[in-house]
């Protein structure tokens, strides 16, 4: 009895708990009588304890209001269980969870169910009405046994890795009681079956951020209770979905698909619709807003990146409740007259980027609502600073990048009381009106001046500033000492200017410092204290001398350190190994000297040199912060920053490829070609599950190609030609689809795509033996993602490292503008 009580206490089941996100009063919760708790039956609390013990549940803080367990008064059985963000482990089919047959409400979100599939045993929880498995890392398909959960009214599978197709037989379509269904942010691929129309009680449906394709079935019009429909970020095609009769809709998000044709005018008479996102489609035609007894309630409307042809602003100006309006990249051929927005008295955010704006409407006589807080006019062909903004006291954010505005930044700008972000990147500005301290008292926090024609000294910055980005200008003189008075400054980016003088002493208080390609002199100040927030320091291509400051060891947040192309004279900085987060280290073209193997190691791999010009290391310094500010999603940010390639090609590196290469999990491309590597291809390469390109050609590698490479599903390019490899080429589709030339010039490879068959040969499917002097080599790459570059062609044992944060150039140019100096 004591143990039972103890386990009951463990779950705090007696504490009166209201739930944060799904409170018992939420429309989607289960009707459980929370006021009368009873002790759970021993067999139930035992099952619960066993369930908890299947996982590392040490992080389950049961005093948190969203965690808890509830038992039913009459049966003493567990009817409700909530455990958020604390379980780590695999959810097994044998889990004791599936003994809790009386569960009606199960909330297990944000746990780490490592690569678990959904056990079909969920089907045994046939009393479930509420099931939230949001953000858990589940993989695989939704099991067919889900059709047993016929009472389910709430199902949240958002943010997992579910895949596969939904066909007309899918168990989900048997769940006729569903009112809430969220399959968003998974990897479902398929068209949308007509059977979606079976889920007549749905009030909320999200299929966003998957790979659904094809047309939206007409049966969607049967979901007449729908209040929110999110189909954004898929590959859906066809004409506008039949949503006109979904009169309860308040939110419709079809953004980032391939819908074409025109927008039905009935959208603007839907009585409850307040949020409409159609951006990023191929919609054409004009927009009609008819007079209606139920005037539109639209507040948020996002129509950007479509192919509208007609004059669409005039009708939009009838939607008088609009607060957020995105009409960027409308693809219209006539200039937009800003005065058409004057009826929108509630407008807060307006984005007209990518459209030409009628010059007259930028004058001081413009009649635009003064309520505006955010105005984006990027790429609008503007020649002169819009003077009408002078009286806009509520402005917080101005974006005028990618225009052709000349002259000086007006003095009145710094007096706008709420302005915190100001971007004029990629224009032709050459200076600032007013005295050098004109901006010192302004409220400005983020200033983007990149790619203009600014000359002369950098002005005294606003005391409140957090971020200054001014690359590709012609600022001269030294970095003003006054920046050390800016206690909120975290990002200082002044690369590609003509600054001289020393690096200021206060930079250890910043988190991102980019001073690349100037003429700075002196030493890098040795001022880094314990707890310094520094994440990125780039002082490459200057005239810095002295040693690398040893106090950099204190910067435990440092991820990016680039001092290439200076005159730094120092031994190889093995001491940087102490920095746990360092990912990119660029030392090329300096005067580093000495051994490049760790002092306490006797490594045969590297030789000692008196003086080494550490080589070229290319990278594109695209910090997350640039992208955040441009309003890109987290997802794109992640993709951008995790793209990594190592290129050590074209050198004379000898020895074996260290097995520890398999630790560089983020690698997208590895190029070790044209060296003198010996030994076997490491088995651990098969652990680089993101690898898309692998070039090991022209080395002296022997043994077989590890079978695991056949299962790297992203591998698009592999080249192992001109080695001494033998045996069977692994037969995965990614490999056999390669060109023959990728395998030629080896001692004895056989199998597709080569013509030599393995039949009859004695090709043993052997795997390479464990490498002998592994210990020594581990040391090199145990710097985890620290990738070290050495100069090309400088004797044995040196390599070029290219670490490229790669990206899709087309859209980056659209977002950030061309990465070069303007012709002033
Ligand atoms: C658990 O206890 C309940 C209530 O007494 C009982 O109905 C049920 O059969 C028991 N289940 C098991 C597996 O012992
Ligand atoms: C479906 O639920 C019933 C009870 O309603 C149960 O007997 C049956 O085993 C469940 N089926 C599966 C596949 O779990
Ligand atoms: C659905 O199930 C029926 C009967 O089980 C089967 O004949 C049909 O091929 C299935 N359809 C799909 C799309 O799987
Ligand atoms: C569901 O939609 C289809 C296609 O729009 C229609 O033919 C069918 O009658 C609808 N069913 C019901 C029950 O409304
Ligand atoms: C919408 O409702 C009207 C009237 O009820 C009906 O005539 C029309 O067919 C419906 N449209 C769709 C697409 O379901
Ligand atoms: C509109 O888009 C089409 C297709 O992308 C393009 O060819 C055309 O030049 C664009 N027109 C304008 C005015 O932007
Ligand atoms: C900034 O504010 C300070 C203190 O209020 C004042 O002394 C100074 O003159 C102001 N500077 C400018 C340029 O307005
Ligand atoms: C930088 O300034 C020096 C003189 O201080 C000048 O010779 C040089 O051309 C300038 N470089 C650039 C890129 O403007
Ligand atoms: C760094 O910031 C701390 C705390 O704000 C401050 O005390 C210190 O003076 C600053 N150091 C420099 C060099 O600005
Ligand atoms: C690290 O910072 C502390 C002050 O926080 C300083 O005393 C120490 O010298 C620094 N370490 C190095 C190696 O410079
Ligand atoms: C690897 O680098 C060499 C140059 O050394 C280049 O020719 C080759 O194309 C690169 N391989 C890949 C896959 O990019
Ligand atoms: C791949 O990684 C796993 C886990 O990270 C590890 O246990 C395994 O030894 C690695 N395989 C190879 C061949 O390195």
What topology emerges from the helices and strands here?
Blueprint: H1 2-10, H2 42-53, E1 68-71, E2 78-82, E3 88-89, E4 105-107, E5 112-113, E6 130-132, E7 139-140, E8 154-156, E9 161-164, E10 180-182, E11 187-190, E12 204-206, E13 211-215, E14 228-230, E15 235-237, E16 251-253, E17 260-261, E18 275-277, E19 282-283, E20 300-302, H3 313-316, E21 324-326, E22 349-351, E23 374-376, E24 397-399, E25 406-409, E26 421-423, E27 428-432, E28 446-448, E29 455-456, E30 467-469, E31 474-475, E32 491-493, E33 512-514, E34 521-522, E35 536-538, E36 543-544, E37 560-562, E38 569-571, E39 584-586, E40 591-595, E41 608-609, H4 624-629, H5 634-642, E42 644-647, E43 654-656, E44 667-671, E45 676-678, E46 693-695, E47 702-703, E48 717-719, E49 724-728, H6 733-736, E50 748-750, H7 774-781, E51 787-788, H8 809-816
Parallel strand pairs: 2-4, 3-5, 4-6, 6-8, 7-9, 8-10, 9-11, 10-12, 11-13, 12-14, 13-15, 14-16, 16-18, 17-19, 18-20, 20-21, 21-22, 22-23, 23-24, 24-26, 25-27, 26-28, 28-30, 29-31, 30-32, 32-33, 33-35, 34-36, 35-37, 37-39, 38-40, 39-51, 42-44, 43-45, 44-46, 46-48, 47-49, 49-50
Antiparallel strand pairs: 1-2, 40-41
Signal peptide: 1-27
GO cellular component, one term: plasma membrane
Membrane topology: Single-pass type I membrane protein
Mean pLDDT: 81
* Distinct ligands: 2-acetamido-2-deoxy-beta-D-glucopyranose
**Could you name the CATH class of one domain?**
Alpha Beta
Number of DSSP E strands:
51
What is the helix fraction of residues, given as a range? under 10%
CATH topology of one domain: Leucine-rich repeat, LRR (right-handed beta-alpha superhelix)
Instruction: Identify the overall geometry.
Output: globular
Q: Strand count, sense and closure of the main sheet?
A: 24 strands, mixed
Radius of gyration: 31 Å
Poorly predicted regions are: 1-25, 33-37, 595-643, 763-817
CATH homologous superfamily grouping of one domain: Ribonuclease Inhibitor
> Helix tally?
8
Beta-strand content estimate: 15-25%
Going by CATH, the architecture of one domain would be Alpha-Beta Horseshoe
Distance between the first and last residues' Cα:
84 Å
Coarse structural class: mainly beta
Keywords: Cell membrane, Glycoprotein, Leucine-rich repeat, Membrane, Receptor, Repeat, Signal, Transmembrane, Transmembrane helix
Organism: Brassica campestris
InterPro entries: Leu-rich_rpt, Leu-rich_rpt_typical-subtyp, LRR_dom_sf, LRRC69/RLP
Family: Belongs to the RLP family.
């Amino acid at each position: 009895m004591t143990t039972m009580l103890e386990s009951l206490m463990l779950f705090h089941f007696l504490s009166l708990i209201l739930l944060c996100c799904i409170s018992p009063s939420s429309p989607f919760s289960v009707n459980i009588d929370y006021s009368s708790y009873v002790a759970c039956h021993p067999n139930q609390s035992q099952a619960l304890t066993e369930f908890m013990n299947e996982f590392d549940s040490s992080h389950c803080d049961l005093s948190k209001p969203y965690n808890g367990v509830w038992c039913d008064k009459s049966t003493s059985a567990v009817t409700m269980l909530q455990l958020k963000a604390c379980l780590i482990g695999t959810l097994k089919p044998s889990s004791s969870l599936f003994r809790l047959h009386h569960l009606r409400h199960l909330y297990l979100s944000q746990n780490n169910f490592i690569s678990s599939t959904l056990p079909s045993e969920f089907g045994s929880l046939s009393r479930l009405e509420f099931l939230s498995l949001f953000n858990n890392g589940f993989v695989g398909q939704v099991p067919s046994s889900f059709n047993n959960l016929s009472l389910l009214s709430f199902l949240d599978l958002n943010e997992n890795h579910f895949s596969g197709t939904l066909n007309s037989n899918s168990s989900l379509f048997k769940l006729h009681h569903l009112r809430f269904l969220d399959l968003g942010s998974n990897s479902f691929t398929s068209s949308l079956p007509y059977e979606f129309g079976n889920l007549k009680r749905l009030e909320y449906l999200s299929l966003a951020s998957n790979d659904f394709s094809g047309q939206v079935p007409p049966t969607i019009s049967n979901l007449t209770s729908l209040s929110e429909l999110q189909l954004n970020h898929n590959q859906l095609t066809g004409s506008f979905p039949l949503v006109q009769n979904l009169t309860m809709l308040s939110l419709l998000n079809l953004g980032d698909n391939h819908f074409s044709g025109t927008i039905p005018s009935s959208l603007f008479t839907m009585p409850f619709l307040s949020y409409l996102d159609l951006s990023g489609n191929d919609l054409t035609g004009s927009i009609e807003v008819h007079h209606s007894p139920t005037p539109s309630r639209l507040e948020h409307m996002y129509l950007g990146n479509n192919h509208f042809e007609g004059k669409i602003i005039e009708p939009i100006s009838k939607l008088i409740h609009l607060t957020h309006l995105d009409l960027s990249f409308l693809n219209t051929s006539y200039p937009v007259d800003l005065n058409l927005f004057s009826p929108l008295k509630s407008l807060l955010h307006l984005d007209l980027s990518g459209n030409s704006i009628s010059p007259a409407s930028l004058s001081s006589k413009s009649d635009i609502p003064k309520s505006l807080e955010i105005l984006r006019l990027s790429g609008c062909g503007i020649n002169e600073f819009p003077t009408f903004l002078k009286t806009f006291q509520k402005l917080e954010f101005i974006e005028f990048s990618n225009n052709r505005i000349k002259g000086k930044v007006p003095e009145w700008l710094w007096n706008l009381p709420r302005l915190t972000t100001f971007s004029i990147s990629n224009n032709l500005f050459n200076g600032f009106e007013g005295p050098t301290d004109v901006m010192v008292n302004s409220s400005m926090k983020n200033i983007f001046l990149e790619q203009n024609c600014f000359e002369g000294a950098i002005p005294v910055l606003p005391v409140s500033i957090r971020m200054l980005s001014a690359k590709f200008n012609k600022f001269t003189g030294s970095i003003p000492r006054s920046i050390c008075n800016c206690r909120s400054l975290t990002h200082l980016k002044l690369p590609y200017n003509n600054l001289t003088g020393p690096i200021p002493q206060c930079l250890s208080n910043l988190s991102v410092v980019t001073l690349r390609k100037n003429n700075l002199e002196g030493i890098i100040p040795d001022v880094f204290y314990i707890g310094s927030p520094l994440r990125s320091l780039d002082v490459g291509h200057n005239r810095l001398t002295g040693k690398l400051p040893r106090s950099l060891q204190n910067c435990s947040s440092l991820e990016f350190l680039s001092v290439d192309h200076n005159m730094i004279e120092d031994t190889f900085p093995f001491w940087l190994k102490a920095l746990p987060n360092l990912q990119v280290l660029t030392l090329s073209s300096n005067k580093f000297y000495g051994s490049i193997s760790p002092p306490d190691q006797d490594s045969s791999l590297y030789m000692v040199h008196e003086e080494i010009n550490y080589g070229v290391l290319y990278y594109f310094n695209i910090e997350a912060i640039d992208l955040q500010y441009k309003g890109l999603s987290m997802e794109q940010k992640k993709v951008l920053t995790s793209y990594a390639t190592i290129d050590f090609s074209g050198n004379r590196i000898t020895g074996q490829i260290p097995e520890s290469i398999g630790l560089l999990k983020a690698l997208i491309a590895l190029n070790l070609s044209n060296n003198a590597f010996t030994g076997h291809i490491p088995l651990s390469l098969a652990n680089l599950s993101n690898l898309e390109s692998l070039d090991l050609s022209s080395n002296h590698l022997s043994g077989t190609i590890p079978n695991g490479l056949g299962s790297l599903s992203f591998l698009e390019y592999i080249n192992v030609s001109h080695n001494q490899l033998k045996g069977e080429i692994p037969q995965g589709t990614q490999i056999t689809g390669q060109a023959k030339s990728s395998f030629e010039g080896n001692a004895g490879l056989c199998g597709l795509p080569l013509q030599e068959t393995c039949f009859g040969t004695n090709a043993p499917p052997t795997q390479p033996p464990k490498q002998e002097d592994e210990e020594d080599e581990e040391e090199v790459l145990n710097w985890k993602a620290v990738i070290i570059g050495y100069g090309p062609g400088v004797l044995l044992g040196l390599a070029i490292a290219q670490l490229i944060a790669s990206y899709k150039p087309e859209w980056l140019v659209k977002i950030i503008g061309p990465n070069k100096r303007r012709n002033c």
